[in-house]
Amino acid sequence: MKILKVLILIAMPALLVACGGDANNQALISGTIQNGGGKTLYLDDLNGPQSVRIGTIKINNDESFTYNGKIKEKGFYKLGISPTNFLVLVLDSTEHVNIEAVADSLILNYKVTNSAENELMHKFYDLEMGMDAKFDSLSVIFKNFKTTDTTLKDVDSIAKALDKSYMEFGRKNATTIKAIIEKNPTAYANLYGANMLNPDEYITILDKLATDLKKAYPKSAQVDNFANRIAAAKKTAIGVVAPDITMLTPAGERASLSSLKGKLILLDFWASWCGPCRKENPNVVKLYNKYKDKGFTVFSVSLDSNKDAWVKAIKDDGLAWMHVSDLAGWKSAATQIYNFNSIPTTYLIDREGKILNRNLRGADLEKAVENYIAAENVIH
Question: What distance lies between CA 167 and its chain's CA centroid?
Fold first, then answer.
């Protein structure tokens, strides 16, 4: 499963700030670990820039264990046997968490009682593992299909069908997560579940969750971090006016995204050294040539730091539209304004300057542009 990926999101660099109580806060965890007699559990604090080992727990020969130790704040803690075999728990000094699990895989078939927060964590785990299992099963289907005597068109068709199945499954999971959050608006565990919701689709509920958690945990560094990320996401959410960007063109002239208002714009973040960006460029060129006379254009922002490489890529790929850069690489102001960490990243912006969609490529991008222009023709 992808727990480690989620942990990166919920345990981003932050100061350890107490959420109430004092340094004598005690976390009480007990339970049984089947086939775990004689083994050692460890407990790590995940609330800072790096995980910190705060305790080890010897599992008794009768497979029972008990931990009664200090914690610094309410937050996420990792209880594990090995780096790949662990549970993430929400701990504070108010609850006695009881856990029943199996040593070979703590995350599978475990049971938690006496803790509303960790019962919610269990629900989020189940939903996440369901997504992983669905992805794995669809991957097997696709792999087996590719080994048969099929045409490229058939392969593309089955890939789209499987992708649609996965997305529909994901939407059902997201609906369940949304319901859990709405029913338990101040649960700390929601920080975990929230990372399975796409901000583009669920920015309203994520924004409300950030507000609710800030009120419930005003001194929590993790809640602050979450609230800051949601605030950044709101600035580039679908339906809002795209933040302006003003940088220099290859000729050294200042150019702004806002100067193109009135056109249908593809805002494209790329770089000459980005393989996927260069691979997508022919599709964008084709789209630009097809619709430029109908008010479609592209505003490309490069994350290059070498001007010569940037200019050469523009020429080599035939990118005949507006280009800007501050030649600061990943330290570009654009990464701060639009809060992205990979390229290509794209935004489709309507004639009023509002964000229509993001990260569309190839046929999906062409369809979105075609539909927008067709809808305009119907209205007029």
Answer: 15
Six token digits for residue 11:
């345990």
Cross-strand partners of 322: 299
Rg (CA), the chain: 25
Both ends of the chain: CA-CA distance in Å? 50
| pLDDT tens digits, 54-82 | 999 999 999 999 998 878 788 999 999 99
The sign of the CA dihedral 289, 290, 294, 296 is negative
Instruction: Map tokens 């996420």 to a residue.
Output: 76
Q: Domain locations in the chain?
A: 3-115, 121-235, 246-379
In b/e form, how buried is each residue of 135-167, taking b as 16+ CB within 10 angstroms?
Answer: eeebeeeeeeeeeeeeeeeeeeebeeebeeebe
**Residues 6 or more apart whose Cβ sits within 8 Å of residue 100:** 31, 32, 34, 110, 111, 112
pTM equals 0.72
Per-residue burial over 88-123, b = 16 or more CB atoms within 10 Å of its CB, e = otherwise:
bbbbbbebebbbebbbeebbeebebeebebbbbbbb
Closest CA to 310 of 270, 269, 267, 272: 272
Indicate the helix (H) or strand (E) that contains 234: helix 221-235
Chain segment 172-218, per-residue pLDDT in tens: 999 999 999 999 999 999 999 999 998 888 999 999 999 999 999 99
* CATH architecture type of domain 246-379: 3-Layer(aba) Sandwich (3.40)
Please give the helix or strand (H or E) that residue 212 lies within, else none: helix 199-216
- The strands making up 75-82's β-sheet, listed across from edge to edge, are 52-58, 40-45, 75-82, 85-91
Q: Match domain 3-115 to its CATH number in 1.10.3470, 3.40.50, 3.40.190, 2.60.40.
A: 2.60.40
327/263 Cα distance (integer angstroms): 26
In this predicted structure, which of 17-31, 128-142, 236-250, 263-277 has the lowest mean pLDDT? 17-31
Q: Quickly state the pLDDT bin for 10 (edges 50, 70, 90).
A: very low
Report the pLDDT averaged over residues 254-276: 97
